[in-house]
């Protein structure tokens, strides 16, 4: 290695398009270009920072001179010429180690490794090449003879070759990729360049955690980077986790609900803690109704205690069962307004994200007075989106004919064959703008219970159904029946989200875990449809059960 001189040539300018003046941003108590140069010079090789004669780089020269670093100034746009002129005092057989100032990890020891491999290879060019070399992106350098650089300067004639310095060398000389043995596979996914402001902040935070970043060996820096990246990825995933297809159904938080409910109505303290935990976990949508007892009131308190503004609330109009069929338009409109403003009051919101008709029949009842008032409130900005809660596919088909409907909730579970009917499927295919939320995926909890807890119903064999459900759990390698039920509905291509009622933290955690599993494939959904029998339609309505 003593038969030639080695010069480290750092390419730098302040007029970067992505991150202007990044060379002056502080890293480890130095401007980053100075930090880069001092690390590269750590084993004694001379360093030249090659910048431009453009006025924008005047301050760069001053900074370099102030730190006793050699600066060469040449053409701004013809970088190949600038780099060639910077080494004019060197012989043809001397070596150029080319770095860029936005890559601050390489130090003298890393450069020694690359130069040694170049010397042993007998090639004309050796350089890193991400991601093929397995090194972090930004741990980069190139080594070549001064003679190769001079030939490239004489013969390269395209703007690309003149700007990027080494493409001509790579095409016309014997080249080899730098390879380091035993590189951990995880390194190739790391990033240590400073191309954007986010890159800079990442490196700035990294070096703040290191006692002496300027003198820390390159390999130690990479290990710090790997640890920091792992921690950052975990935290980012935790912060960004969103269960966008999981809607927290809060009927159980407002009144005792469902055949499987053995806990009764949770206390307010329990309900608020449960909702806060759900929000923290990434559940961003809550479903309620004016008829759900204390539900809206409790959601309002939970929202008030939470700073997140992107939580979406779906509520439903009061069932209006206190109105007579002969109620006047004025009475009906007043009842609708009262329901809406009570909802806003309890939710502590000035407007409702999504408001559903609790019953589709209200669309036309009372001479359409309910519907007309909802449209008026939407026009006034009190309601953002109108939808409907339905019970049957027939109601869905009718609702889809109303252009103002944007949201439909319907009871869907793996026993309910009605949602496979051709008329329904044809209707939903024409309204891609409507979102479908499935509720009662456990058939009010029945599908999670043993056969002894099933209702007595004509032409329904509870023992056979329970046996078939358990076989499907095994066949599709699901965790349990809840997993099977959720995976089935999540696998339906027309269902956008699932509304799941919960009243305990254990139920919440279980649902979060189940939503992290894969849904059934379309093939598995079809297989389920073929295996399970077609039950009487009346059985699919819990109101007709005899428990």
From TrEMBL:
Record domain NADP-dependent oxidoreductase: where: 246-531
InterPro entries xrefs: AKR2_Oxidoreductase, Cytidylyl_trans, NAD(P)_OxRdtase_dom_sf, NADP_OxRdtase_dom, Nucleotide-diphossugar_trans
UniProt keywords, alphabetically: Transferase
GO MF terms, alphabetically ordered: transferase activity
Full protein name: Putative glycosyltransferase
Source organism (scientific name): Legionella brunensis
């Amino acid at each position: 290695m003593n038969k030639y001189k080695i010069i480290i040539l750092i390419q730098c300018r302040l007029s970067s398009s992505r991150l202007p003046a990044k060379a002056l941003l502080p890293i480890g108590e130095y401007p980053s270009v100075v930090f880069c140069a001092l690390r590269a010079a750590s084993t004694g090789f001379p360093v030249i920072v090659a910048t431009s004669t453009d006025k924008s780089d005047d301050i760069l020269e001053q900074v370099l001179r102030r730190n006793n670093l050699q600066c060469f100034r040449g053409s701004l746009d013809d970088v190949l010429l600038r780099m060639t002129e910077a080494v004019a005092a060197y012989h043809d057989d001397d070596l150029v180690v080319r770095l860029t100032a936005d890559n601050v990890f390489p130090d003298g020891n890393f450069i020694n490794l690359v130069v040694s491999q170049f010397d042993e290879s007998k090639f004309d060019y050796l350089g890193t090449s991400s991601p093929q070399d397995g090194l972090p992106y930004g741990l980069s350098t190139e080594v070549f003879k001064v003679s190769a650089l001079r030939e490239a300067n004489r013969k390269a004639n395209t703007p690309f070759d003149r700007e990027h310095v080494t493409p001509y060398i790579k095409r016309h000389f014997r080249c080899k990729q730098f390879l380091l043995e035993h590189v951990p596979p995880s390194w190739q996914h790391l990033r240590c360049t400073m191309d954007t402001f986010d890159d800079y902040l990442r490196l700035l935070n990294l070096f703040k955690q290191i006692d002496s970043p300027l003198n820390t060996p390159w390999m130690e820096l990479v290990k710090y980077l790997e640890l920091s990246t792992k921690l950052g990825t975990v935290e980012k995933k935790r912060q960004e986790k969103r269960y966008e297809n999981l809607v927290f159904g809060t009927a159980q938080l407002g009144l005792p609900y469902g055949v499987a409910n053995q806990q009764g109505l949770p206390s307010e303290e329990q309900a608020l803690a449960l909702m806060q935990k759900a929000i923290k976990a990434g559940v961003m949508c809550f479903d309620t109704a004016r008829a759900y007892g204390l539900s809206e009131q409790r959601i309002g308190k939970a929202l008030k205690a939470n700073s997140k503004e992107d939580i979406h609330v779906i509520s439903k109009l009061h069932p209006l069962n206190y109105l007579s069929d002969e109620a006047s338009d004025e009475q009906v409109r007043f009842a609708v307004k009262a329901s809406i403003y009570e909802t806003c009051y309890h939710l502590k919101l000035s407007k409702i994200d999504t408001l559903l008709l609790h019953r589709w029949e209200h669309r036309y009842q009372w001479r359409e007075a309910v519907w007309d008032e909802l449209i008026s409130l939407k026009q006034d900005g009190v309601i953002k989106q109108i939808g409907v809660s339905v019970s049957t596919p027939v109601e869905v088909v009718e609702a889809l004919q109303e252009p103002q409907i944007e949201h439909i909730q319907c009871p869907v579970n793996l026993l309910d064959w009605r949602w496979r009917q051709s008329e329904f499927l044809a209707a939903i295919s024409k309204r891609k703008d409507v979102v479908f939320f499935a509720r009662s995926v456990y058939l009010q909890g029945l599908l999670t219970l043993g056969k002894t807890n099933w209702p007595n119903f004509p032409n329904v064999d509870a023992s056979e159904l329970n046996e078939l459900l358990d076989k499907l759990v095994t066949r599709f390698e699901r965790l349990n029946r809840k997993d099977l039920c959720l995976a089935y509905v999540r696998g339906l291509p027309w269902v956008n989200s699932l509304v799941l009622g919960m009243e305990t933290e254990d139920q919440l955690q279980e649902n979060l875990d189940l939503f992290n599993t894969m849904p059934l494939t379309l093939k598995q959904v079809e297989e389920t449809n073929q295996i399970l029998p077609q039950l009487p339609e009346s059985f699919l309505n819990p109101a007709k059960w005899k428990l």
